Amino acid sequence: MAGRLLVFVLGVSLLCHATAIELKYDEALLTVNNHLQEPITLLYVSDDCYKCLLQPLLTLPAAQSLRPTNHTVIIGTQFTLTFHVLREGGDEEPVCSWKQLYGEHGHYRMSVQSNNGSEQCYSLVIRSPENCLLALLVAFVTLLSVWGLYYLTAYVLRSSCTHKLLQELKKKMGHKSKDEPDRSVSQGQNAEIPKHRRLLSLDAFRGFSLTIMVFVNYGGGGYWFFQHAPWNGLTVADLVMPWFVFIIGTSVALAFSSMLKRGIHRSQLVRKLTWRTCVLMAIGAFFLNYGPVDGPLSWRWARIPGVLQRLGFTYFVLALMHTYFSKQNLELVESHHWSAAVRDIVVYWPEWIIVAALEIVSVCLTFLLPVPGCPTGYLGPGGIGDYGLYPNCTGGAAGYIDKWLLGPNHIYNYPTCKELYKTTQPFDPEGVLGTINSVVMAFFGLQAGKIILIYRKSPYKIICRFLIWSILLGIISAILTKCTRDEGFIPINKNLWSLSFITTLSCFSFLLLGLMFYVIDVRHWWGGQPFIYPGMNSIFVYVGHSLLGSYFPFNWEVKNWTSHYEILAQDLLGTSIWVFVSYLLYRKNFFLKI
């Protein structure tokens, strides 16, 4: 009876101590009780960390009489954790081990006991976890309600009954409806814009990508799947920049075809694309690579690569190549010749040779370049990955080339693998070697633009060809990755911009653009709102959200870090403000162009 009372008192004291610990989101409490007559060490590793060394979490001294020793630690709830209990100073055979995905704000207890001469671990849930996805559900329902209310209001205002009622009210108030013919003309003109002047689906695709980019850059509500993957694999945040690169290629095809038809000389195109590249790279280098808290920009630590720098260089290479090989007239001529079915490829055979040569160079450098102290062809993050064998080999050849060309002080020092894999080496996700594959990704977007131009009179052929390209690229990705995250020939990796990453995201891009093209430009079921507004002012929104992201009302001092609610509300509000600003600029006919 006394023993049970002692255990009860210990449980109550542990619970009181645990409640004094303030947990943030994605955190839980784990209390470990040691009933053994010898000290123990608890090791852990995240299952998201591939081939990683176990890391020490805590050490507990031996139990004293009937009183077990205990300690409470904070653990993460984002990924499944594996734990091993070892005798301190003993052999490497664990006393016990377990694997579990813990819930947010839960309190768990693990007791290490000896039962009939064998040691075992017994788990107990002291406090049930909370559902961390409720904040997302509330946000989804709120946004869905706002969207539904908007379209319901628009439908009511456009209905014939409402129109007649407004006309009657105008007549009673003495107003004439002389503006009615002008409205019909305006509606007719607007209806022709997507068909003849602008591909609204491309603007909607660009705006959709940009909206997600703003949201994830602002924090994504603190959810791990709105953050970049630590190394291999894909999250929502990993999708947006490749989509932008793909859209660059499609835009180049459409814009250059239009300019050549207007009689603009190719030398003028070269001057224009060179100017645009310089402006993009200057904005990225001098405005977005540091913040006001960093003080004056210093060449000693300035980061050379960056998002806009990569976009600018990718645009320059692709646009320069297309300037010399683009065709003025791409109208499809019916023919039974074998090349008619692949005209969008055969006509541009020099571009395919150039891009294939670039990819061969990228693959050869990745897998054949000797890297001091690292295995040739290494694609891992280093640190504690690969069982700690290559701690200083982060990124393999890609990381080595960046440090050799740019210097370790001029590349990114906080890569996404730093926290999980305990890396110490700088690594830039917008580095030199990955930029080659960025050009290849943009080339697939260029191919999408060529398909649109050649088959513009047969929209269903456009959709079919998009689907064929998507299936083909998906098959290539499946072969390269062996349908796994880490075990393939070339894993999907956003940090490296690996070949499988390019083929996978190009597959998604063809699918998404094809779907939007069908819904917006073919069937006219949706006008692309609200995404067309940031899509038509992408430079303004991207630069603006990067420079003002740390200021109110886009950001404020969060009072409640214990859940996702306030953080998610902050990030959604900041994103919504930029969408609304782009809508106002659209109404004012203001479009920032370079």
Topology of this protein?
Blueprint: H1 2-19, E1 27-34, E2 40-46, E3 55-60, E4 69-76, E5 81-87, E6 96-100, E7 107-115, E8 118-127, H2 134-158, H3 160-172, H4 180-197, H5 200-217, H6 240-261, H7 266-286, H8 307-325, H9 343-346, H10 349-368, H11 397-405, H12 418-421, H13 432-454, H14 459-481, H15 499-522, H16 532-535, H17 538-548, H18 565-587
Parallel strand pairs: 1-7
Antiparallel strand pairs: 1-4, 2-3, 2-5, 5-6, 7-8
Uncertain spans: 1-18, 176-196
Biggest beta sheet attributes: 4 strands, mixed
- Helical content (DSSP H or I, runs of 4+): 40-55%
Please tell me how large the radius of gyration is: 29 Å
Broad shape:
globular
Order of helices and strands: HEEEEEEEEHHHHHHHHHHHHHHHHH
The count of strands amounts to: 8
Helices, by number, come to 18
The total domain count is: 3
Strand order of the largest sheet: 4-1-7-8
Distance between the termini: 81 Å
Description:
Helix 5 (200-217) crosses helix 15 (499-522) and helix 8 crosses helix 13. The strands form two sheets. The chain has a four-stranded mixed sheet with strand order 4-1-7-8, with helices on one face. The chain has a four-stranded antiparallel sheet with strand order 3-2-5-6, with no helix packed on it. The N and C termini lie far apart (81 Å). Helices cover 50% and strands 10% of the residues. It contains 18 helices and eight strands. It has helices spanning 2-19, 134-158, 160-172, 180-197, 200-217, 240-261, 266-286, 307-325, 343-346, 349-368, 397-405, 418-421, 432-454, 459-481, 499-522, 532-535, 538-548, 565-587, and strands at residues 27-34, 40-46, 55-60, 69-76, 81-87, 96-100, 107-115, 118-127. Mean pLDDT is 84; it is low at 1-18 and 176-196. It is an alpha+beta fold. Strand 2 and strand 3 form a beta hairpin. It has three domains: 2-127, Immunoglobulin-like; 134-175; 197-587, no CATH class.
